[in-house]
Amino acid sequence: MKTLPKLLITLSGKNSKRNHKDQVNLSYQFLLATLFLSLGAATYLMVDSLSLAGAIKLMIPTLIAGYLLNVVVTVIKNGKEAKEEAIAFLGESESKL
Length: 97
Prior knowledge:
The chain has helices at 3-12, 20-48, 55-96. The protein is mainly α. Helix 1 crosses helix 2 (20-48) and helix 2 (20-48) runs antiparallel to helix 3 (55-96).
């Protein structure tokens, strides 16, 4: 199992009020929201450091923003497969009980 489905399973937890599809969709939306907030914060730090005119102060937030953007793109690209795998795993684990 890949990392993204494991993360979605962990985030969805054991919520008996929702079915597995809704649990995974909610955890996926939470993950995307968190990543976009982090990307926005890194972008803010990058733009804020422009006024300081320090190359090092500009480089670190830019690297963080680039890494977070890469993570966001990967999550969006693999999201559908990961959600389906997480839903299937949750269904299998529930049927074993």
